[in-house]
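Side project, low priority. Logging it here so it doesn't get lost.
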Amino acid sequence: MLYPENVADKLGFSEIRELLKQECLSSMGRQLVDRMQFITNFDLLNKLLLQTSEFKEILLNDSPFPSSNYIDIHYLINKVKVEGSFLTEEDFFSLTLALKTVFQTINYFKDKEERYPNLCGLFEGLVIEQKILKEIEQVIDPKGKIRPNASVALQGLMRDISTAENESRRRLDHIFKNAQREGWSADGSLTIRDGRLVIPILAEHKRKVKGFIHDESSTGQTVFMEPSEVFELNNKIRDLEFAKRREIIKILTSLTNEVRPYSPLLLAYHSLLTKLDFIRAKAAFGIKIEGSLPILKKEPSIKLFNARHPLLLLNHKTTGEQVVPLNINIEDTNRIVLVSGPNAGGKSVCMKTVGLLQLMLQSGMLIPADSFSELGVFRKMLVDIGDDQSIESDLSTYSAHLTKMKNFVEQANFHTLVLIDEFGTGTDPQFGGPIAEAVMQVLNQKKVKGVLTTHYSNLKMFANNTEGIINASMLFDNTNMRPLYMLQMGKPGSSYAFEIAQKIGLPEQVLKLAKVKIGNQQKKVDTLLVDLEREKKQIYDMKVEFERREKRLTELLNENNKLKEYYEENRKKLINDAKQEAQMILKNANKLVENTIAQIKESKADKEKTKAVRQKLDEQQQKMQVKHAPVPKNEAEPIQVGDWVKLNDSETTGKVVEINKNNAVLAIGELLSVVKLNRLHKTTRKEIEKVARSQYADYQIKERTSFNPEIDIRGKRGEEALYDIEKFLDRALMMGLNSLRIIHGKGDGILRKLIRDYLKKYDAVDQLEDEHPDRGGDGITIVSLR
């Protein structure tokens, strides 16, 4: 329950609704936005929120979702239900597009149930019947026109009409050429009047050509005549056209009868598209406002971390400003938050942010707050914001407020969220303050939760001494006299009335008189609040600085621990490797000494042989010393003519064609360049080819993404248009595209004929056809490539 009825307007939810409509792809999605409700059922709300969150994941991290042809087919289904009715070609075409979107969507979620369980739940029990689409496509072609072979009778009629039209045109051309030779015809060509093909004849020669005059020019000098020779033939064509129309209606009626039994299933498909469009729009809007899914609780409570007002966030994005985040906790121990502070300090924005985010969440939308925020489900939202005085109802501002307070006290309970702006204002503070205090006491006894804003000192004192109510204030920089728009829980705030008045420039005499009139006790309270505010600001700044230093210290400790772990790990490994290597050296040395002693014994201390054996031992020791000595840095092999090289700190490669002292002449493609030898290092042909393939792949990707498969040559001369089309076709073939669009306009059809005759010479061109009438007709040529 929402009270009053205009809560959506008061909190800004109506604007959110309009922005959400802009994200919808269809009219039915926008209608669903208009029907959004305040949901109090926990299970239903949880499911809707999870669906939106899953769709956000799709939009951000999954393959592109089918987002075309979200067509409202509800009116077509109602039309199908009526016995004897039939859908037109355009109706069936719209139905085909919608069905294709449905089946593409179903296929998209195939094998994704584990990843998107709540979205896949939309398809539970839905029958997938592609037979409907197949039946329609047998009759309706991809352009939305009935196929010529939809029936044997239609095929015969089409053939007869074509034959008759060709014969009529042939005879008419003959008569027209004869009239031109005789000088009877006017300037111009064959044209159509009253749906009949006619020839222009000068009025003074109209008796010389037998036929029926359909029209004349504005001057009366030219008449448009249908020769009698083709009159009967044209009548035959007209009769055949009527017969063709009757046959088409017969085919469409038969197809409609075949589709009629599927009406309930078509309604289910329509409902699916509507829901998907609505959920997709909520997810897309959630991305725009940096929204996330908070932790949903069954019991009413609010814990918001880094929450931001969505409308303020969108507005600041355009200006580049930052929104100060809101942190607020409303729970059983602190049920009512009483926010005080200076005017224009952000009290109302704070309260509206809480109300708007709760309303958005309970409408199934993501909210701009950290995902570890916690929001419960409220059954009622009671809101008092703004001036609701009514001339019709004879209500003053204060009377309107009191009427709402009466309803609040009567209706509020544990599951209610109350939002009241400028609590107690509108009448004499001497009486308004106590009444507001009494209302707040009753609301607190009913254990409601809410946010109230006020300037009244008695309410701040009451909140300070009452369990369940907590003071909060909007921080204010009283040095620079500017609001900080940050909520501080636990302490009331000063209105800074005198400080702001002094900054504005109110005369000192007025300020002194005002201070005398407010009384010593009130002045002491306000001064105490200002001092508390100043101390609170200092403590807050110290806290921020402490947190910053603590964070930096933690980072340094973590970095130090990682370095220590790395050092310990590598030290143990190096020691272990060194021990193994030393054991191997010792083993080899012992073996060598033993062999030497054995050889000396065998030679019986022969001086020459002993000398030779000792020399061999020395050589082995030198080899071992060299082998286990520290390895110096490898010097680069000298670069020679014919080597493939690469520039240091660059991907540029080339082949050395000449070396002159410290310089090398490189062949880089077709260019020759002189480069210092110390700027080069050797590479391999295989690596060169790898880089070339990578660069070519990048080029292909760049070309594909920048290439537009559509060219507009309207207004160009024939030779210029053909030259542009030839370049356009060559690039398309290189890209491996299958279809192109050439926009040439209608006019007299000269440019269209020139282009099509030219394209027919290309072996790579498979088919040429007109665009769909709704998208340009014969003013655009669709080119299908082999």
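Brief comment: The two ends are 63 Å apart (CA to CA).
Revisit when time allows.
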